Amino acid sequence: MKAAIIGGGVIGGGWAARFLLNGWDVALFDPDPEAERKMAEVLANARRSLPALYDKALPREGRLTHAGTLAEAVAGADWVQESVPERLELKHKVLAEVAATAPSASIVGSSTSGFKPSELTAEGANCIVAHPFNPVYLLPLVELVGEAEMCARAAGLLRRIGMFPLTLRKEIDAHIADRFLEAVWREALWLVKDGIATTEEIDEAIRMGFGLRWAQMGLFETYRIAGGEAGMRHFLAQFGPALKWPWTKLMDVPDFTPELVDLIAGQSDAQSGHLGIRDLERRRDDNLVSLLRALKREGQGAGTVLADHEAALAPAAGPPVTSDLPVTVDRLVPQTWTDYNGHMNEVHYLEAGSQATDRFMELIGADAAYIAGGQSYFTIENHLRYLDELHAGDRLTVTTQMIEGRGRKLRLFHRMWRGEALAATMESMLLHVDLGTRRSSEPGPVVAEGLARYAAHLEMDLPEGAGRGIGQRG
Amino acid sequence: MKAAIIGGGVIGGGWAARFLLNGWDVALFDPDPEAERKMAEVLANARRSLPALYDKALPREGRLTHAGTLAEAVAGADWVQESVPERLELKHKVLAEVAATAPSASIVGSSTSGFKPSELTAEGANCIVAHPFNPVYLLPLVELVGEAEMCARAAGLLRRIGMFPLTLRKEIDAHIADRFLEAVWREALWLVKDGIATTEEIDEAIRMGFGLRWAQMGLFETYRIAGGEAGMRHFLAQFGPALKWPWTKLMDVPDFTPELVDLIAGQSDAQSGHLGIRDLERRRDDNLVSLLRALKREGQGAGTVLADHEAALAPAAGPPVTSDLPVTVDRLVPQTWTDYNGHMNEVHYLEAGSQATDRFMELIGADAAYIAGGQSYFTIENHLRYLDELHAGDRLTVTTQMIEGRGRKLRLFHRMWRGEALAATMESMLLHVDLGTRRSSEPGPVVAEGLARYAAHLEMDLPEGAGRGIGQRG
Question: Within the 269-288 window of chain A, which residues sit less than 8 Å (CB to CB) from chain B?
């Protein structure tokens, strides 16, 4: 698949990175002489953070080219994304050129935050609004507005690159999310202008309270809870009248004077000026990765998008380091797995080993359905040998050998590889259990057959290090 | 310390739970005959989630009493918190009674979201606004408004119960955060009324995008990044003019008609009606615990409040199960540590063991300052034996025996206890390393002395299970 990105700023660059890391080829057109440098910076951030969301490897990265002309960029593109500055006449010009040169079947999306599809297509170009949120390579939301059939095709492709398409029922200025951002922005300007709070205090008022609520449930579900047993109707009865209170008196727009600009810029410098923009970006991205992984574990909100995308990724199938053994994990080491010693923390070696055990269980038929049926394996012992350091961004591959697998007992030997270097081994003893009685039991026929499929593993040499205690040698 | 809670609804109950779980005694006064049941439900939620934020035990829970009169509740209270319904004449009546009966030195806070301190104190009562956010037992933010000296004392006490006091510079209707909530609410009503989006679509527009940004950086720092290298001033130059665009045309207040109420309540039922309010609360709380723990690991936003609070908690000192060994972990098992088998996942046994190793390192002087000086210990082997299941909410205590501790090698044997039952053991072999060369090295004198302080451990019997490989017996 190929995406053409017209305009390589923060948004266009974010789109390009999202497509590339999901295996699409990308052609970028941006006449800015700095475009290559800017794109490289966004891509570096994305490579550092996007793969860290997943416990599987993403597809092999696509190829990035910098096109000399718009026509060259859009040639053969399945998706053309326009992210040029927010001036309608410029958008019209670019979209007309796209219409004249892109394949007729390609999706043409505009990143506009302000214009409606009817405005964009007023001069005949065929396109939809596909409005993403910064950083595009991490945040799932894309607002789709416009012609239904193109929106539907776009939604399907967006899901395949891990995004969440939200298709609007009607077009409206600023779509949905930016209307909220605009409302909050207006209110924030008043608070700063009137000396009620500084920019830093406003940020704290958001991130120490309702920002945490909105990261996982949004507005209405949160308020439904506030209504208690009586639900939304009760909440509305309580809170509705507030709309007539004097709180609403500041619905006017503050004058955007040079003094107000100075006030805000000065406070923002005091708050964050000690950090460079790249520091802030990395901090934001690390936080987002950590929050998104937390939601993935909970199976909630944006975490469901991640989980669905991860499930659709090909299973672990990285470079088979030891040719006869199944590859049970193939992933990158996320930043969140490192510790004060500057390397992957000891806990996450066991996490990777545990993922390998889960995958091997799937391979022998002890999968989610089997567990839902009331049977599973419990680990009763683990022995880890840490042989080499791993760092954030390292590709980690695990191969698994079954060294005991008859009756209730299952003993696995995981080798954890950083490229061709053996970084750790983990020996795991598991017992097959009945989840009702919590006692050991014989595996069901499906799993007994699954174990038999790997019987050849038992004939292999016992791996170096297996069966040993700590401090015991050969 | 004692807190008197006047009004035991969702907010008052949340305050009571926050105080109780931080070791305060609480007297609750609420004439509602259902008050005890409601309080018990809020407390059950809080007990399930608040301790899960921390990797240390909270203080012993305080004593909850249901007072028959307001005067009985406030007797001897260090803090009186008023959380009665939002009617000014009712607040005046309650605050006058508090003034007449509470100790003169006590802090008197009002949970009001709408009234200013000048309104609350108009009839002579001395109090401040202390406005929290639901769920009070999890979200750190408290807006303080009013008399400076009482606000300062209140801020100090709030930090000790893990909250984030934000003191306003001037009083204003709805303080800070609720102004934003009100602005967004108004906009959301328009979107639903005009058929642009349903309540569910609006929630997705928030939690799939900017909600994630606001959970960790708020508004201004996020936009500073959007401004790129040129910073806030550049962002303002780009975005400022949007304030004059037609986006702002909907600053009017929609009519709150029965039809609009029906529309919203119906959409909310379709979105969340299949879940009971308790399910939604638990889901919200699990998500918040998971997000807050993620931010604690990143050391950002609300995570810094947690980390500071945790650092101020007494070190692990739970019931010493084995009297001669140091208790190196004393904590509850969080919900986020459990897995598809319904018990604590194998990975988190190692996490608890790793915390015990970190604590033992502190005890022998290999603490954060020592590590910052370029020396540390790396784990080279771990052997875990899983002897019993642990579940969310279980209290987990770890004792640590040093079974080898001379020169570069440090071998620890952690026993993990659920009450008096041995749930797991973990034997860890560590090597002292120079963080510059990443090679093993002799410990510095501070740590050598620290090791010597535990020399008696080496004379004890080798623990059952130590030194053994997987599957090896006695």
Answer: 269, 271-273, 277, 280-281, 283-284, 286-288
Question: Which of A189, A290, A335, A412 best probes binding to B when mutated, by most B CB atoms within 10 angstroms?
Answer: A290
Q: What is the DSSP annotation of A184-233?
A: HHHHHHHHHHTTS--HHHHHHHIIIIIHHHHTTTTTHHHHHHHTGGGHHH
Could you tell me whether strands B164-167 and B2-6 are parallel, antiparallel, or unpaired per DSSP bridges?
unpaired
Contacts of B194 in chain A (CB under 8 A): 170, 172
Q: Three-state SS for A109? A: strand
What's the pLDDT at A474? 46
Q: A41: pLDDT confidence band, cut at 50, 70 and 90? A: very high
For domain A178-274, give the CATH number: 1.10.1040.10
| Residue A257: count of CB within 10 angstroms of its CB | 10
* Element housing A328 (H / E): strand A327-332
pLDDT at B245: 53
A347-356 b/e (C-beta count within 10 Å ≥ 16 → b) = bbbbbbbbbb
Yes or no: say if B127 and B109 are a contact pair by the CB < 8 Å rule. yes
**Taking 50 as the threshold, does the pLDDT of residue A382 lie above it?**
yes
Q: What percent of chain A has pLDDT over 70?
A: 93
DSSP string, B344-411: B-HHHHHHHHHHHHHHHHHHTT-SHHHHHTTEEEEEEEEEEEE-S---TT-EEEEEEEEEEEETTEEE
- Inter-chain touch B220–A200, beta carbons under 8 Å: yes
Mean pLDDT value across residues A65-88: 96
**The CATH number of A2-175 is which of 3.40.640.10, 3.50.50.60, 3.40.50.11810, 3.40.50.720?**
3.40.50.720
Confidence class for position B259, pLDDT limits 50, 70, 90: confident
Task: Give A445's pLDDT tier (boundaries 50, 70, 90).
Answer: very high
CB atoms within 10 A of CB A241: 11
Question: How many Cβ atoms from other residues are within 10 Å of residue A235's Cβ?
Answer: 21
Give me the residue spans of the domains in chain B.
Answer: 2-174, 178-274, 327-459
Q: What is the mean pLDDT of chain B?
A: 90
* DSSP letter (8 states) at residue B248: G
The fold of B2-174 is Rossmann fold (3.40.50)
Q: What is the CATH number of domain A327-459?
A: 3.10.129.10
**Tens digit of pLDDT for each residue in A101-147?**
999 999 999 999 989 999 999 998 999 999 999 999 999 999 999 99
Q: What is the DSSP string of B249-286?
A: GG-SPPP--HHHHHHHHHHHHHHHTTS-HHHHHHHHHH
Q: Residue B376 — φ and ψ, nearest 5°?
A: -160, 180
Q: What is the mean pLDDT of residues B443-472?
A: 90
Confidence of residue B249 (pLDDT cuts 50, 70, 90): very low
Which chain A residues contact residue B265 at CB under 8 A?
231-233, 236
Secondary structure (DSSP) of A345-365: -HHHHHHHHHHHHHHHHHHTT
Closest CA of chain B from A367, distance in Å: 11
Closest Cα in chain B to A369:
B340
User: Quick check: A131 and A167 in contact, CB under 8 A?
Assistant: no
Collect all residues of chain B within an 8 Å Cβ-Cβ radius of residue A345.
354
User: What's the whole-model pTM score?
Assistant: 0.90
Residue A147 vs residues A116, A168, B162: alpha-carbon distances, Å: 12, 11, 51
In this complex, do B386 and A368 lie within 8 Å of one another by their Cβ atoms? no
Q: Tell me, what's the pLDDT at A32?
A: 94
- Confidence tier at B251 by pLDDT (50, 70, 90): low
Nearest to B150 by CA among B110, B194, B198: B110
Instruction: Find the closest chain A residue to B383 by CA distance.
Output: A383
Among partner residues B221, B222, B246, which is closest to A173 by beta-carbon distance?
B246
